[in-house]
């Protein structure tokens, strides 16, 4: 019998690892019901914050104080309800969890209020990418090629996947030319990413706990979704997910790719492997860097898969590579050399600054710490390491690679998907630790029993603040921005839109269907990397092709058409000075706070008209 038992154990060790879920599915958090209830409860709170803060007009200090008073009144309500209902049966740990959940929902309500002004803003110049994003949608509407020769200066440096899907959903909603509808779609991508993050955390927790459940699973579910929504929109590494950029869909695709990796590591299903083969090609259609998931999947199959299968590895590599190659060849077949130039050459010429990348790691150190702490807590057992080590390495490697590539620019948005994956691991680890069985010795009673849960709740509050999830309750877009956009629109009245060049922003061209050349983001991108041919715009300026030119930074060193830091001047500033004159200006947007830094796209606008021959 011992020999038979030993042989049976050896066979089981060679078989694919199958994770048995707890008998009671409710013993694990991650169900959408409580999470959606908590998420939806933040909406009326956000409306209340808007009503209170909006009543103080241009006095941000009074608005913030009034909002703080409102939220201070709301904070103890769920905890008081729990304590009154349970009375002597109230558990300190549960009470602390109720308080943490309430804090997270309140933080989400503030974030909703802040982000609403960005989503609803009718013009597409909140960040540099919005103009090109909307321009691609405009091209789709009128049947204009997405990628054209670079002398036109009107193509985007990203593939069109996010623009196509955004336009499809906006058209489906009945608002095909609404910039606000386009941003609402990005919100949908981001909320979807938070929901998939819950599913990922649930899978990690099921491996870490085995057949053991989680105390207060419904409360944890109510905490998870608001927390993941905050992480997915955090202003440090995910500042652009609700604006018109590839980041929203890229984050959703990354967390779905991670979910597939977790499921394959747990169950080794062939159908999941087939879905994984499509991820690099789908990722490339959204953002070039997402093909990295093909490398992570290959690493899982080659190093961490048990039992290893050379046949599976080769089949995945060939299938995934063929799909990716087919997408690239299709792009080349549709648009030819301009596709290669805009998608590969422009961004490929950007140099990475190691110093800048290190500075970004210094700013976002908390996300690295979360991933490392989660690894220490969850990978301490042989069974967990056998299943979860590969996915953990992929998540940590993604954050590290994103941090390095973020050195091409001054923003940290490259690190968004990796930071959300780090949060997934951390949430699963904290939930497992909180629910760990205690020893059978004497337990503290009275006030001492409330000390540890109270300290844990305080740590949770500090964590929300340290990760940048607690925002100042002021509109994300200053109220004066609408005046600014209206004055820009005024410059188009009485003139054909194709005769007016606006440096950033395509909303004024969207309804008349005009694809405009010589856009500032396109020129600034290539002037910085030294890859641009600006002979086309120089000729159009010398011919005084435009009846009016509207641009920002005309008298500043960081003029996007001709920045002072470029190794070689584009010559555009000199050509403008020779052929156009400044006839008036539009005042810059007044910031919400005096200390708030002004975005380039909200600075003073110069209106130029041709000089008399």
Q: Approximately how much helix is present in the residues?
A: 55-70%
Shape: globular
Q: How many angstroms does the end-to-end distance come to?
A: 104 Å
Major sheet size, sense and barrel closure:
4 strands, mixed
**Percent of sequence in beta strands:** under 5%
Uncertain stretches: 1-26
Radius of gyration: 27 Å
Helix-strand pattern, N to C?
Answer: HHHHHHHHHHHHHHHHHHHHEHHHEHEE
Number of helical segments with 4 or more residues? 24
Count of all domains: 2
Which strands sit side by side, in order, in the main sheet? 1-2-4-3
Molecular structure report:
With 613 residues, the protein is mostly helical. The protein folds into two domains: 31-435, no CATH class; 481-610, no CATH class. Helices cover 62% and strands 3% of the residues. The protein contains 24 helices and four strands. The protein has helices at 2-14, 32-54, 60-74, 76-86, 92-120, 128-142, 161-172, 179-209, 217-232, 247-267, 270-286, 292-304, 310-335, 337-348, 354-363, 365-378, 382-405, 416-434, 451-466, 481-490, 507-510, 520-529, 535-542, 572-579; strands at 500-502, 548-552, 580-586, 605-610. A four-stranded mixed sheet has the order 1-2-4-3. Helix 5 (92-120) runs parallel beside helix 9 (217-232), helix 8 crosses helix 9 and helix 16 (365-378) packs antiparallel against helix 17. The longest helix has 31 residues, at 179-209. The protein is globular and about 90 Å long. It starts with a helix and ends with a strand. Mean pLDDT is 89; it is low at 1-26.
């Amino acid at each position: 019998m011992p020999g038979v038992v030993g042989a049976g154990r050896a066979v089981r060790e060679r078989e694919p690892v199958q994770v048995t879920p707890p008998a009671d599915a409710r013993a694990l958090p991650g169900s959408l019901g409580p999470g959606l209830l908590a998420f939806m409860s933040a909406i009326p709170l956000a409306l209340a914050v808007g009503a209170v803060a909006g009543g103080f007009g241009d006095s941000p200090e009074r608005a913030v104080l009034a909002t703080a008073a409102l939220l201070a009144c709301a904070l103890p309500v769920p905890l008081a309800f729990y304590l009154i209902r349970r009375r002597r049966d109230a558990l300190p740990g549960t009470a602390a969890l109720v308080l943490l959940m309430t804090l997270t929902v309140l933080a989400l309500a503030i974030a909703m209020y802040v982000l609403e002004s960005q989503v609803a803003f009718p013009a597409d110049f909140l960040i540099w990418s919005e103009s090109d994003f909307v321009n691609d949608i405009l091209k789709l509407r009128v049947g204009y090629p997405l990628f054209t020769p670079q002398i036109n200066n009107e193509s985007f440096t990203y593939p069109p996947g996010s623009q196509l899907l955004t336009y499809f959903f906006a058209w489906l909603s009945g608002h095909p030319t609404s910039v606000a509808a386009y941003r609402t779609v990005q919100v949908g991508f981001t909320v979807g990413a938070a929901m998939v993050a819950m599913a990922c955390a649930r899978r990690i927790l099921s491996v870490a706990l085995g057949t053991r459940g989680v105390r207060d699973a419904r409360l944890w579910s109510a905490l998870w979704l608001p927390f993941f929504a905050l992480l997915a929109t955090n202003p440090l590494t995910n500042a652009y997910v609700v604006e018109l950029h590839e980041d929203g869909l890229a984050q959703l695709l990354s967390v779905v790719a991670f979910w597939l990796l977790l499921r394959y590591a747990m169950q080794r299903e062939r159908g999941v492997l087939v879905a994984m083969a499509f991820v690099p090609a789908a990722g490339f259609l959204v953002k070039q860097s997402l093909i990295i998931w093909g490398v992570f999947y290959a690493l899982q199959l080659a190093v961490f898969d048990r039992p290893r299968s050379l046949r599976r590895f080769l089949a995945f590599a060939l299938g995934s590579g063929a799909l990716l190659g087919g997408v690239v060849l299709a792009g080349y077949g549709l648009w030819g050399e301009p596709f290669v130039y805009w998608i590969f050459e422009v961004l490929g010429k950007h140099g990475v600054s190691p110093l800048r990348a290190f500075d970004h790691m210094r700013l976002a150190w908390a996300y690295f710490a979360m991933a490392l702490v989660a690894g220490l807590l969850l990978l301490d057992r042989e069974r967990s390491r056998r299943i979860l080590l590969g996915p953990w390495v992929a998540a940590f490697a993604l954050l590290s690679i994103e941090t390095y590539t973020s050195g091409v620019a001054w923003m940290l948005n490259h690190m968004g998907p990796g930071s959300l994956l780090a949060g997934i691991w951390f949430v699963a680890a904290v939930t497992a630790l909180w629910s760990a069985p205690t020893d059978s010795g004497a337990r503290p009673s009275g006030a001492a029993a409330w000390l540890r849960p109270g300290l844990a709740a305080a740590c949770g509050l500090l964590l929300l603040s340290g990760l940048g999830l607690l925002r100042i309750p002021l509109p994300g877009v200053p109220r004066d921005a609408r005046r600014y956009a209206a004055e820009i629109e005024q410059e188009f009245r009485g003139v054909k839109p194709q005769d007016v060049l606006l440096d950033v922003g395509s909303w004024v061209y969207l309804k008349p269907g005009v694809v405009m050349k010589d856009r500032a983001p396109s020129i600034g991108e290539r002037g910085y990397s030294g890859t641009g041919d600006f002979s086309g715009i120089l000729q159009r300026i010398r011919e005084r092709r435009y009846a009016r030119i509207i641009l920002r930074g005309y008298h500043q060193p960081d003029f996007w058409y001709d920045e002072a830091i470029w190794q070689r001047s584009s010559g555009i500033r000199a050509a403008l000075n020779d052929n156009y004159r400044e006839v008036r200006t539009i005042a810059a947007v007044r910031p919400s706070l005096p200390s708030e830094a002004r975005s380039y796209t909200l600075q003073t606008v110069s209106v130029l008209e041709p000089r008399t021959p």
